[in-house]
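Lab notes, practical 5.
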Amino acid sequence: MEKSIIIAVVLGILVLISVVQALQLNALKEKINEGKLTFSKTSSSSSGGSNGQSSGLPSNIQDLPSMVGGC
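Output from the prediction step:
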């Protein structure tokens, strides 16, 4: 195969993927606007960090400001 044919095929695949993603994004946007989309919060077994509040983040991310010497 020639180099230009391979590039054209790859470009066509990328365009097809972007079209599919645009359609999925549009469908998701419509669901959000109609209020049909529901979110579920998963419970965390961690105690929530040093301040006692649970934000749903892993403890290593919650303690990040103190790890880097936060203000």
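Observations recorded by the TA: The radius of gyration is 22 Å. The mean pLDDT is 77.
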